[in-house]
Amino acid sequence: MEIEQRIQNVYRPVEERVKDENEVERRLSDIEIFAQAKRCSNCGIPFCHGAGCPLFNLIPEFNAAVAAHDVFRAYDILSKTSFFPEFTGRVCPALCESSCTRNLNDEAVMVRQTEKFIIETAFEEGWVEQPKAAESNGKTVAVIGSGPSGLYAAESLRRKGYIVTVFEKNPKVGGLLRYGIPNWKLEKNVIDRRIALLEKAGIKFICNTEIGKDISAEYIHRNFDFVFLAIGTTKARDLNIPGREAEGIYLALDFLHGSSMEGENNPKRFNAKDKRVLIIGGGDTGNDCVGKSIREGCKSVLQVEFLPKPPETRSPSTPWPDWAYQQRSSYAHHEGGEFLWNISSKRFIVKNGHVAGVEVIHVEWEMSPTGKPLKPVEVPNSTEILEADLVVLAMGFTGVPAEGIVNDLKLQLTPRTTIVSDPSRNIYAVGDCSNGPSLVVRAMASAKQVVSVF
To answer: Which of 54, 221, 324, 429 could bond 229 through an S-S bridge, CB–CB 3.0 to 4.6 Å?
Structure first.
């Protein structure tokens, strides 16, 4: 039997999507998804499940159900292991696909889009209901932060009969999902739809409340039986080179808030219209900054990365079934702009108090025998000026600040500045603030693991 080929393009046309803030991915048809699910080999040892998915989703099982056109059964299987597949089905990089056995001599099964299809069909058919809570055990829990790990912890605990209150410092629930991921990757009504179900299940959400500022952390600790910290890694990696104080240089999440916050607190200085935009950092957040710049009508956009360009195919440094170190193109890279690798920024060019560009130097990397970058070496006489009216720093996050909640609750930080849980006082850290900056799916998996022992 001939095997269907993997669908290569899952996006809406570029000329259409750059004119709006709707999700960039097109809705795949039932026929397309059924055919893609049939590509699953139902391996005897499902590496997608054990080595790939942090949530241990039963991927071969729900693929088989979809291939048989039994989407209700597929939803029943998926919902046993994953509470929020509508989020991971949109923003997960699909670690499971990197571990797919088909990668050995073909292309991976299309898992993420199948997951999205299952959950969206379930919502449309009315199969998705509020979480069913066990009989109340009378114990109260405060969850600080409503990002992916906070929401996962909240639902997990509510299902076990705990009385759960979630505190969020921002105006709306969602944390990173709302304020770090733009609409064109995750429309905010998708978040609101899920929050409504959590509220029906009895979870209470209190927004515009920063613990340590509006309410003391010690007050929360005294008035709840358990405290779950899901505050993420809020300390962005900055670029402290000469000229940093100039106007027009912004951290990535500040720049993205204009789109993610649906117009709230969106001063014009964050708008890229008619500006030459330079984005320092080549990861997903940097890519989203490219997408925002293009949608706002920038004059030009250039993204630069310190690291070397990864190989086109899987590097020997990450053998299957590990997550492959290799070049991956983003939706934003097809929309416009330029990208440069091996670029080290030395100083900002400042004119009349405003950034006018960045002086950079090219680097070459010493590589390991397996192709892993080890040490950068500056290339002599390669200095140049990259002109820019707006510079975005998208270089990731460094950890959790020692002040605030950590200090108030007298918690310990690891050398990587992540929070150490204190079970003796019923204080638990989950997600990025516990494990370091990572993926939405890993944040959820962290909460799932911690709550599993309750």
So the answer is: 429
Answer yes or no: same fold for 140-234+398-451 and 238-395. Answer: yes
Architecture field, domain 140-234+398-451: 3-Layer(bba) Sandwich (3.50)
How far apart, in Å, are the Cα atoms of 348 and each of 155, 273, 315, 340, 376?
Answer: 46, 21, 34, 17, 21
DSSP designation for 51: I
**Which one, of 420, 430, 424, 422, lies nearest residue 452 by Cα?**
430
Cis peptide before 321 (omega within 30 of 0): yes
Q: Spell out the CATH class of 14-125.
A: mainly alpha
CATH 3.50.50.60 given to domain 238-395: yes
Buried b or exposed e, range 283-319, using 16+ CB within 10 angstroms: ebbbbbbbbbbbbbebebbbbbbbeeebeeebbebbe
Q: Splitting the chain (454 residues) into consecutive groups of 10 residues, what average pLDDT does each group show?
A: 82 96 96 96 94 98 98 98 98 97 94 98 98 96 98 98 97 94 96 98 97 94 98 93 97 79 57 97 96 96 97 93 93 94 98 98 95 95 98 94 92 96 98 96 98 96
Q: Which residues contact 163 (CB under 8 A, 6 or more apart)?
A: 136, 138, 139, 140, 141, 202
d(CA 401, CA 29): 46
Burial class (CB in 10 A: 0-12, 13-18, 19+), 240: exposed
State the pTM of this model. 0.95
Whole-number pLDDT of residue 7: 95
Nearest CA to 340 out of 298, 381, 300 is that of 300
Query: With the CA atoms of 248, 252, 258 and 264 taken in that order, what torsion angle do they form, in degrees rounded to the nearest 10?
Result: -100
Q: How far apart are CA 396 and CA 90, in angstroms?
A: 20
Cβ-contact 282, 341 below 8 angstroms? yes
Pair type for strands 343-351 and 338-340: unpaired
**How wide is the angle at C-alpha 264 spanned by C-alphas 263 and 269, nearest 5°?**
75
The tokens describing 180, both together, are 């770090």
What is the Cα–Cα distance from 85 to 74, expressed in whole angstroms? Answer: 12
